[in-house]
Design goal:
The chain is of the alpha+beta class. The chain is built from 2 helices and 10 strands. The strands form 2 sheets. Strands 1-2-9-4-7 form a 5-stranded antiparallel sheet, with no helix packed on it. The protein has a 5-stranded antiparallel sheet with strand order 6-5-8-3-10, with no helix packed on it. The two termini are 40 Å apart.
């Protein structure tokens, strides 16, 4: 009871000192938009499937982190829902895969790609999927990943 009264008193004093608009400003979320989990499903009690929409701001990059154990297999694909092109890399302890146009050795900006890999000891247990947008327009990437249920998917928060 005393805690409740004390809490109300603190909130009322903040409103009178700061004003409502200042308090609303303290609770606003970051302007950076995070990824949207479109769909998440468990497949045959062994696999996890995540469909995610990742926003990549013009001239910036967005990361997707996968935590795996050795021997875990991952399959996935992505395509651009909005934007002109994107670069894509997968790295563990070092670069494992970089999307390329067919028949070239230079990293290419693509609109879609399919990939698969196995977690190995030399690459560690955390794998980073990097979407880089070098254009002047924001991009939206649809990403589907299938990985073992013991793995985990996360998205780092960037401080601006």
């Amino acid at each position: 009871m005393v805690k409740g009264v004390l809490t109300v008193a603190i909130v009322l004093s903040l409103v009178s000192v700061l004003g409502c608009s200042e308090i609303a400003g303290l609770t606003k979320s970051s302007s950076q938009q995070g990824p949207d989990i479109v769909r998440r499903a468990e497949l045959a009690e062994k696999w996890q499937m995540d469909q995610t929409r990742v926003r990549v701001v013009a001239g910036d990059e967005s990361l997707v982190l996968l935590r795996l154990t050795y021997g875990d297999k991952v399959e996935g694909y992505f395509y651009l829902e909005k934007g002109e092109d994107i670069t894509f890399q997968i790295a563990g302890n070092s670069l494992m895969y970089e999307a390329q146009a067919p028949g070239t050795e230079v990293p290419a900006k693509l609109t879609s790609d399919r990939f698969a890999f196995v977690a190995i000891q030399e690459q560690g247990t955390t794998y980073t999927l990097t979407f880089r947008n070098t254009t002047d327009n924001d991009a939206v990437v649809f990403l589907e990943l299938i990985y073992p249920v013991n793995g985990s998917l996360s998205f780092p928060i960037a401080a601006k």
